Amino acid sequence: MFYREAGDFKTSYIDDNQTFPIKFDRYRYYVVLAVAFGIIPFVMNDYLANALLLPFLIYAIAAIGLNILVGYCGQVSLGTGGFMAVGAYACYKLMTAFPDVSMFIHVILAGGITAIVGVLFGLPSLRIKGFYLAVATLAAQFFLVWLFNRVPWFYNYSASGQINAPERDVFGIVITGPNASAWATYLFCLIFLTICAIIARNLTRGTTGRTWMAIRDMDIAAEIIGVNPLKAKLTAFAVSSFFVGISGALFFSVYLGAVEVGEVFGIQKSFLVLFMIIIGGLGSIFGSFAGAAFLVTLPVVLKVVGADWLGWPTDIVAHLQLVIVGALIIMFLILEPHGLAQLWRLAKEKLRLWPFPH
Amino acid sequence: MPEQLVFAMEVILNGLMAGVLYALVALGFVLIYKASGIFNYAQGVMALFAAMTLVGIMNGQVPFAHLINATFGTHIHYFGWNVPALLAILLTMAVMVFLAWAVQRFVMRHLVGQEPIILFMATIGLAYFLEGVADLMWGSEIKTLDVGLPQGINLSIDEATFNIFGYGFFIDNLDIVATVIAALLVAGLVAFSQYTKQGRAMRAVADDHQAALSVGISLNFIWIMVWSVAGFVALVAGIMWGTKSGVQFSLSLIALKALPVLMLGGFTSIPGAIVGGLIIGVGEKLFEFAVGPLVGGATENWFAYVLALIFLVFRPQGLFGEKIIERV
C-alpha cells in the first residue's frame, strides 16, 4: 500500500537508472535531505552537535567506508583506526602547510592520501584471505599508530606530541578551532556525508560494486568468470580508505580539535566501526547509517539513564555499556545476522501489503 | 667475547621466555580453532576474567559489590576471609567450566553452521561482554596476584653467567617457572589428545563434525570440553601474566599479541603455536635491541604484526598449518 513498485512507470532510461528508482524511496530521501539541511541547523545547540550529531555524521562516513570493504568486498579489516589516523594527520599537515586553502580541499586530499596508504596495506590481500587477512590488517593499525606517535615530523615537533587543529574557514565561515559554531561544523560534515553516501550508493550498484560482490561471494569463481581480483580488491581498499580517511580528517579537525593518536585512533576505534556495520548490516549503505546512529546514541542514552536518573557511578555505567554492547552484538548475530538493515527491509515488505495482507 | 654479543644473548634468552608466554595464549586459540573452527578472539579476555576471578576469590571479594552497593545503597566489599591459592585456583576452574557451558549453551549453539567470520565477530562480542562482566564483578582497579610463584632475578644463572662471560644475565625466576609450566601443559595436552578417549573424540570432531556425530560422539559435550580446556589454558596464562605485570585491562591485549604468533605457526598446529611464540618473542626483543634505538623505540608494538604479514605473503598457511586448498 504505502511502499509499492506497482504503477511507478519509467518512460526513459534515465528514469530507470536513477539512484532511487522507487518513488517512495526517492521521496523519503528528499524528506531526509530537507530535514537534515533545512531544519536541523536552525534548532542546533552545542550539546546536540557534540554529543550526537557530529559523531553520528563522522562515524557514518567511516562505517560506509568499512562496509564497502567488509560488507561488499568481503575483506575483513581491523585497521580502521589506523586509517582514520592517516586521514587526521594528513589533514593536519595540509592545514598547517597551506593555511589559505579551503578546508574542503584539505579533507578531500586527506582522503586521497589515506586511499594510497590503504592500497599499500591492501596489497597482501591478494595472497592472504579470511582471518589471516583480518590479523594482517592489525599490522596496519599498530604500525600506523606507532609511526604517528614516534616520528615528530607528523606532529610538527610539538612538545606534547598532540596535534591541534588551527582555526580554518570555508567561504569565511569558521569550521575548525574553538570559535567554530555548531551549525557550521554540522553542515560541513553533513555535506561530506551526503556526497560520500551518494558516491557509495552508486558505486555499489554499478560495475565496480558488482565485481566487489562477486569477489566477496566466491573469489575463485569470480576470477574464472573474468573478474580481475587485483583490480577489485585494490579498488575496494582504495575507496574504503578514502572514506575512512575523510572521516578521520573530520573527526580530528572538526569534532575533536586535538588528538593524541594512541588514545583516539587505537584498536578500540577499529572495533567500534566494525560493530557499527555488523549491527547496522553488512553490505548495506542504510545499515551503515543505522549502525552508526545506534552505537553513537547508546552510550548517551545509557549515561542519561544510568548516571543521571539512577545516580549510578560513571564507572559502573561504562562497564554496563560494555556488557550491553557485547550482548547486543551476539544477539544481532544470532537473531538477525543481516542487522538493522534487514529489519528495515522486512518493514518495507510489510508496508507493501499493509493493510491487506493477502 | 665482545660485549654486544653477550647483551644480544641475554636479549635472546629473555625473548625466548617472553615467547613462551605468548605461546601460552596462542595455545588456547589453537585448541578451540582445531575443534570447532571458531577463531576465539575472547581468549585474552578469558585470561583476564580468570585472573580477576582468582584474585577476587583469594581476597574474598563480594562479586558485583559495586553494582549491589549502587543499587541498594549498602557498603559491602569483602566477605572477610582469604581463600588459599590452590583452592581458589580450583574454584576459578569451576567458574571457567561454567563459562564454557554458558558460551556453548547461549551463543555457539545458535550459531552452528554460520560463516566463520560471523563466529569470529560473535567472539568479539563475547570479549566485550566478558570484559564488562569481569569489571562489574570484581572492580576495574589494578590488582596484584600472588599465588606463591617465585619471582625476581635468578641468582644462580646470574652467578654462572658472570663466571663465564664476566657479565651476569638477568633472568626472572617467574619466566623460568612459566617455561616449565608451558612445557608441561603442552605435553599434557598432546598426551590428552593422543591417548584419552575424550581427546580422540576431540580430534575426530576437529576432522569432520558430521562423521563424528554419526559414530556417536556428542558434539555438545566435546565443545563444552574444548571451551573448558581453553578456559584452563586462559587461567594458566592469566596467572603467569597477572603475576608478572598485575591483573589489569592490558592483560586482555595479550590476545592481540598472540595473533601474529598464530599466523606464523598456523592456526591448526599446537607445535606451531610454540615455535611461533618463540620466533615472535626473540624477534621482537632482538629488533628492539638492534633497530629500536634508531627509530625511537617501542617497536614491540608492531614488529610482530609486520613480521607475520611479510611472512604470510610467502606462506599463507603459516609454518605448520594445513595447506589451504580452494575449490569452486
TrEMBL record, chain A:
InterPro entries registered for this protein in UniProt: ABC_transp_permease, LivM-like
Origin superkingdom: Bacteria
Compartments where found: Cell membrane
Transmembrane keyword on record: yes
Topology with respect to the bilayer: Multi-pass membrane protein
Residue stretches spanning the membrane: 27-44, 50-69, 76-95, 101-123, 130-148, 180-200, 236-259, 271-296, 316-335
Pfam families assigned to the protein according to its UniProt record, in alphabetical order: BPD_transp_2
Keyword field: Cell membrane, Membrane, Transmembrane, Transmembrane helix
GO terms for cellular component: plasma membrane
MF terms in GO: branched-chain amino acid transmembrane transporter activity
Keyword Transmembrane tagged: yes
This protein's name: ABC transporter permease
Species this protein is from: Ruegeria profundi
TrEMBL record, chain B:
Principal cellular location given in the protein's record: membrane
GO MF assignments: transmembrane transporter activity
Pfam families (alphabetical): BPD_transp_2 (PF02653)
The keyword Transmembrane helix belongs to this UniProt entry's keyword annotation: yes
GO biological process, one term: amino acid transport
Domain of life (superkingdom): Bacteria
Stretches that traverse the bilayer: 12-33, 45-65, 85-104, 116-138, 176-196, 217-241, 261-282, 294-314
Recorded GO CC terms: plasma membrane
Cellular location(s): Cell membrane
Keyword list, A-Z: Amino-acid transport, Cell membrane, Membrane, Transmembrane, Transmembrane helix, Transport
Bilayer topology annotation: Multi-pass membrane protein
The keyword Coiled coil belongs to this UniProt entry's keyword annotation: no
InterPro entries: ABC_transp_permease, BCAA_transport_permease
Family, as annotated: Belongs to the binding-protein-dependent transport system permease family. LivHM subfamily.
This protein's name: ABC transporter permease
